[in-house]
Each structure stands twice: as C-alpha cells, then as structure tokens.
Specification:
With about 180 residues, the chain is mainly β. It contains two helices and twelve strands. The strands form three sheets. A four-stranded antiparallel sheet has the order 1-12-11-2, with no helix packed on it. A four-stranded antiparallel sheet has the order 5-4-3-6, with no helix packed on it. Strands 9-8-7-10 form a four-stranded antiparallel sheet, with no helix packed on it. Strand 3 and strand 4 form a beta hairpin.
Length: about 180
C-alpha cells in the first residue's frame, strides 16, 4: 500500500518576525484596573523616555517625556509634583511599587543605578522587570478614573541605544578633571 505525502504546512512567521516578537515583554496590570484605559503606546516612537513626572497623592498621576515631547496626563493632578530628567543614555530598567484600589507607590530604577521613590507604601507589592535581559521600559498602559491611576502595566523593548545598554557609564557630577 502506498502512502501519499502531504505537503508540509507553510511557515507562518519568518525567522526575523519571531526574533522581533521575542524582544517585547509586558508586566502587569497591577491595581484594580477599573475606569478608563490609557496607553502611551505610540508615544514611544518619538524616541526613548527622557523624563517623567509623578504626582504624590493617595493615588498618583503619570506623565512621560519621550525624546523631548511631553505626553498626555493620566490620573489626578493634585498633590506634590515631581519631575525627573534622565541623563543622556539613561533608561528605566525596573518599576516596583504598591497597589490596591489605586497605584499608591511607584519606584523607578535606571541603568545608571539611580532609584526614584514616589507615593506611599500602602497595599500589595509589585515588581515589574523585562523578560529579556537588556530590555528597557518602552511605554506604560493602565486604567484611571477621576481620583487617580487604578492600574498600571509596563511594556518593555530593546534599548534603542545598544552601545549604552551593554556598557552603562554613570556621568560624573562636579568633577572638572578630564
């Protein structure tokens, strides 16, 4: 009895597409995730995150600057306002914090070993890191209502500064010698 050969199924993804998909990862969503959804997706095409603002309040609001352009504000703009300007080549490598009904605390870590604390340590802890080594924060998504951020998720991608990713150099402040 002869068997007929069935042609192999076509390859649905090219090797380059699979490799590109592997570099992205997502952490979250942390919080109750009620209210209106928000996303900074698309803003990251302007360039890397160069600065961010956070309001300290029982719940916080977040605003990012991508390559020199401030993005839209989400959450509740009341309380103490904090602005962080990243050094050239500095990128966010981890975000931790506390959440419950709202996101109550955010802690940002960078490849220059700087750490920024915002908010109050109330609620359940979370820690968001990329799945791929060397990836950095590309953008954030989540939910908000009239009182603040109710949920937050982090989207990670390869650094667009590959030379700096492998060998981070911490800028020296106040050193006038060459």
């Amino acid at each position: 009895m002869s068997r007929s050969l069935i042609p192999a199924a076509p390859v649905l993804f090219s090797r380059s597409l699979v490799a590109a998909q592997a570099r992205f990862s997502y952490s979250g969503e942390f919080g109750s995730a009620v209210g209106t959804s928000f996303s900074y997706s698309g803003d990251h095409f302007w360039g890397p995150i160069t600065a961010f603002r956070v309001w300290e309040h029982p719940s916080s609001y977040i605003k990012f600057q991508f390559a020199g352009t401030w993005s839209k504000t989400y959450g509740y703009e009341q309380g103490t306002h904090h602005e962080v300007i990243l050094f050239p080549g500095e990128e966010i490598t981890q975000i931790s914090g506390k959440h419950s009904t709202y996101v109550y605390q955010l802690i940002f870590f960078t490849n220059y070993r700087r750490t920024f604390f915002f908010g109050q340590p109330a609620g359940e802890s979370f820690n968001a890191v990329p799945l791929e080594q060397g990836n950095v924060l590309a953008f954030i998504t989540g939910h908000h209502n009239g009182a603040g951020i109710t949920g937050i998720g982090m989207h990670w991608d390869q650094s667009i500064l590959p030379a700096l990713k492998s060998y981070p150099q911490i800028p020296e402040v106040g050193n006038s010698s060459g």
